[in-house]
Known about the structure:
Blueprint: H1 2-22, H2 28-37, H3 55-58, E1 70-77, E2 80-84, E3 87-88, E4 91-99, E5 105-111, E6 136-142, E7 147-154, E8 157-162, E9 166-167, E10 170-171, E11 178-183
The protein binds copper (II) ion (CU).
Copper (II) ion binds at residues 105, 163, 165, 172, 177.
Amino acid sequence: xxxxxxxxxxxxxxxxxxxxxxxxRDDGAGVRGIDQSAGTAxxxxxxxxxxxxxxxxxxxxxxxxxxxxxxxxVTLSEWMLRPQPAQVNAGVVAFDVKNEGSVKHEVVIxxxxxxxxxxxxxxxxxxxxxxGAQNSLGEVEVDVGKTEAVAFRLAPGxxxxxxxxxxxxxxxxxxxMHAPLKVT
Length: 184
Ligand SMILES: [Cu+2]
């Protein structure tokens, strides 16, 4: 997703450059039209616009767990979070998350190199907003004794699964509720 996003940004930049060179004297009115005409005007071939603006958010949408390519079982308790397997192929990955603990837990799927690299707040929780929407895939909360399924489309890369709940026992993340997931 990150890759797709920068492709889009690059294409946008190329369009801007095209606009600047091709329509140098035009005012703002010409800039608005360039989106439709770029393909036929002075397009140098590399300036094609990939699939509109929806790509950046597509990865964050939860999908049907029943139609997943791969399944990862995740066990939660105080204080551990254990995905099995810890490495899967890219595609639609379903997480079957079981809470074997005595308090509510959750799994948040983040794209990051390691738990240590995640930004934290004073209360010990991970500051998800700082990671950007494209690196925060989604989450599922699981009550005591329950199992919940959720699925997301994962591109190859390094991910970290965390429980980001903070309660009277503190931030579960700080108690060790995190684990890496590698997508190849
Ligand atoms: Cu927890």
